[in-house]
Write a structure and sequence with these properties.
By secondary structure, this protein is an alpha+beta fold. The protein has two helices and seven strands; from the N terminus they run E-E-E-E-H-E-H-E-E. It is globular and about 40 Å long.
Length: 110
């Protein structure tokens, strides 16, 4: 959770070194977003975090079209990255390990 302007913001992500890479917003200005679509939660996340690539909290890159997703998968595979997460943009948040409606491909991208 992060407090900005006296309000709580809850983001979901992964800390790597001194940087928190976030990919979902669960609360924005004390409003629960878990039932909102992932598309709406991404929009809220953009407002919370912005696009400062040097900040200690950074949004992960998101691809929305099939072509962009395929290109990102090739790029990550070429860079020997750990994995990629695919989410349905109309899906609400689902707590726990990745499962339907999203898929996780880790270690050894296809």
């Amino acid at each position: 959770a992060r407090t900005l302007r006296g309000l709580q913001w809850l983001m979901y992500g992964e800390a790597i070194g001194d940087v928190l890479y976030v990919f979902d917003a669960l609360e924005a200005a004390c409003v629960d977003l878990r039932t909102e679509s992932y598309r709406n939660r991404l929009a809220a996340l953009a407002k919370i975090v912005g696009d400062d690539g040097g900040a200690p909290i950074r949004r992960v890159e998101t691809a929305t079209s099939a072509t962009a997703k395929q290109a990102m998968l090739r790029q990550l595979k070429g860079a020997n990255k750990e994995g990629i997460v695919f989410k349905r943009h109309l899906a609400p948040h689902s707590a726990g390990r990745p499962a339907e409606p999203w898929a996780l491909i880790e270690s050894g991208l296809p």
